[in-house]
Specification:
Structural class: alpha/beta
CATH architecture: Alpha-Beta Barrel
CATH superfamily: Luciferase-like domain
Number of strands: 11
Helix content: 40-55%
Largest sheet: 9 strands, parallel
Shape: globular
Distance between the termini: 6 Å
CATH topology: TIM Barrel
Number of helices: 13
CATH class: Alpha Beta
Length: about 325
């Protein structure tokens, strides 16, 4: 049976609301949760982007059952991998072993804030592979010193280590990232239901939707806040700010969004989209409800109608 997750989408919600939403999602019966880790929203209309790690720490203490995960953190520019290792180990302790560390090669949107050139995708993959190596060494305990092509670590040690370190997932979108994940990850992460990204590995997918009893209202909201989604990773990873995403998506029509994203209050389109992930080999799919203020209504609908239907997949 597919496991259905709830997404804390930091780009559309204030920090305390994100935690309150997750408490509600846990009560509603979601199987796990994921949290985005951005410095900017994709579009100004989304309106938020609090720091993910304090939100996750608060969520770990406010909940008792639901697993937590970053979807995804870039451990190479905004954060040094030694810092990510410490944050992840601490969160694993705070959550009582409910945390998984989802990693990716990053987006210019978030990483440009620390300055420097935006590396090519080949260099970003090299950096990610080296970062995962450092994080695993620190999870193993003891002092770590590292001299690599991209990172230095000087006599670092995690003084508070969980008995079981967090599992590490790597975001994949093509052959190069799949090869990296096969070498470095415990599971793969993808937003596209493609079997060649999974190849028999445990996989966590993600699906945006927009619930509202009036479908036209749902379509308008999805277009206003999520039309950037169709650009694809190769484009989206390169754009430097919300204005760039607005320009890149200016010709996307509401009907284009409605064709790509389930909108309205019918369970069947969401179930079909989840089925596409399970057919491709994904055992877990995290749902994104588009629209910050709509989270309580969505969670109530999910508990009442959506989750029971998805359990039958």
């Amino acid at each position: 049976m597919v496991r259905i997750g709830y997404t804390m989408m930091t780009e559309q919600r204030a920090p305390s609301d994100l935690v309150d939403d997750l408490v509600r999602a846990e009560r509603a019966g979601f199987d796990f949760s994921v949290c985005s880790d951005h410095y900017f929203p994709w579009l100004e209309t989304q309106g938020h982007s609090p720091a993910a790690w304090p939100v996750l720490g608060a969520a770990a203490r406010a909940t008792s059952r639901i697993p937590l995960m970053t979807y995804v953190t870039c451990p190479t520019m905004r954060y040094h991998p030694a810092v990510v290792a410490q944050q992840a180990a601490t969160l694993q302790l705070l959550s009582g072993g409910r945390f998984r560390l989802g990693l990716g090669s990053g987006e210019n949107l978030n990483e440009h804030v620390v300055g420097g050139d935006w590396p090519s995708v080949e260099i970003r993959h090299e950096m990610l592979a080296e970062a995962v190596e450092i994080i695993r060494e620190l999870f193993a305990g003891g002092f770590v010193s590292h001299r690599g092509p991209h990172f230095d670590v000087e006599s670092a040690k995690l003084w508070d280590l969980p008995e079981q370190p967090p599992g590490i997932g790597v975001a994949v979108s093509g052959p190069a990232s799949v090869a990296l994940a096969n070498r470095s990850a415990d599971f793969v992460i993808a937003v596209e239901p493609a079997a060649d990204l999974v190849r028999g590995r445990p996989a966590v997918g993600q699906l945006p939707l927009c619930y509202h009893p009036v479908r036209s209202t749902a379509i308008d909201r999805a277009h206003r806040e999520f039309r950037w989604f169709g650009g694809g990773w190769k484009v989206n990873s390169e754009l430097p700010g919300p204005a760039s995403f607005a320009a890149a998506s200016q010709f996307v029509r509401p009907e284009d969004v409605a064709e790509a994203i389930p909108c309205g209050d019918r369970v069947e389109p969401v179930a079909a989209a989840v089925q596409a992930f399970t057919d491709a080999g994904f055992a877990e799919v995290a749902l994104i409800q588009i629209g910050g203020d709509s989270q309580p209504e969505f969670i109530d609908w999910a508990e009442r109608e959506l989750l029971p239907a998805l359990r039958r997949i």
